[in-house]
Amino acid sequence: MEGTSNTEIEVKVALVEWRDYEKLLRSMTTPEANFTQFNSYLDDDRRSLREAHIMLRAREIKFPVGAAKGLGKPPVTITAKRRRSSDRGVFISEEHEQVMPFDEWTDFAIGREPLDTKGHVFRWLKSQVDHGDLKVLGQTVNERYKVRSDVFVLEVDFTKFPDGSKEVEIECETIWPDVAKTHIEELCAKLGIQTRLQEKGKYARFLEKTEGVRNYPG
């Protein structure tokens, strides 16, 4: 299974009140895409990946009814990510990705088959850390709306965490992070929506909410 590696530069701006996301979406153009992401995070019993500051995620995507008719079930994207820096809402990460057939992932998730660790991501993992058998730690469910705003494509994420908490943030992957950050802040200010610069990525917040880990970088 081949894959890709890249450096991701991303802006993250959180809404102080998650319920404001409906007001935000009503003010914007029709989303170019809308889908639900089921994000399963993996590690071994020793939390070897966490200690190496590596996030490993399997992402399933589900489209609204009728939106992907005839396309079948999209493959699951396996992502390994290590944060290089995070500063005032700008996150820079090393990212490695590959895809896995949906049925193969499902067989592992329900305990029918062991995890297939062939491919680009797992080779990279093995070069970075000595880890044991991987298992699913838990899952977040994220409703994503991709909306064009000026020259940027913004991702409005409504995330539900395992503890029942809900958060909304606006993300933008761009080579002009400071310009994008200002654009997002001004857009929300015009609507009377309070924002704050995100300090932690979704995985760091997942660990904090599920395992009480408060020092995972980014």
How do the strands and helices of this protein lay out in sequence?
Layout: E1 3-15, H1 21-27, E2 33-43, H2 48-51, E3 55-62, E4 76-87, E5 90-100, H3 102-109, H4 120-128, E6 135-149, E7 152-160, E8 166-173, H5 177-190, E9 195-197, H6 202-211
Antiparallel strand pairs: 1-5, 1-8, 1-9, 2-3, 2-6, 3-4, 4-5, 6-7, 7-8
* Biggest sheet strand line-up: 1-5-4-3-2-6-7-8
How is the CATH topology named?
Answer: Hypothetical Protein Pfu-838710-001
Flag low-confidence runs.
Answer: none
* Helix and strand sequence: EHEHEEEHHEEEHEH
Radius of gyration: 18 Å
- Record field, number of beta strands: 9
Instruction: Provide the helix percentage.
Output: 10-25%
Overall number of structural domains: 1
CATH superfamily: Hypothetical Protein Pfu-838710-001
Explain what you see:
With 218 residues, this protein is α+β, with helices and mostly antiparallel strands. It contains six helices and nine strands; from the N terminus they run E-H-E-H-E-E-E-H-H-E-E-E-H-E-H. It is globular, with a radius of gyration of 18 Å. An eight-stranded antiparallel beta barrel has the order 1-5-4-3-2-6-7-8, surrounded by four helices. A hairpin with a 2-residue loop joins strand 6 and strand 7. The longest helix has 14 residues, at 177-190. The chain has a single domain (3-211), classed as Hypothetical Protein Pfu-838710-001. It has helices at residues 21-27, 48-51, 102-109, 120-128, 177-190, 202-211; strands at 3-15, 33-43, 55-62, 76-87, 90-100, 135-149, 152-160, 166-173, 195-197.
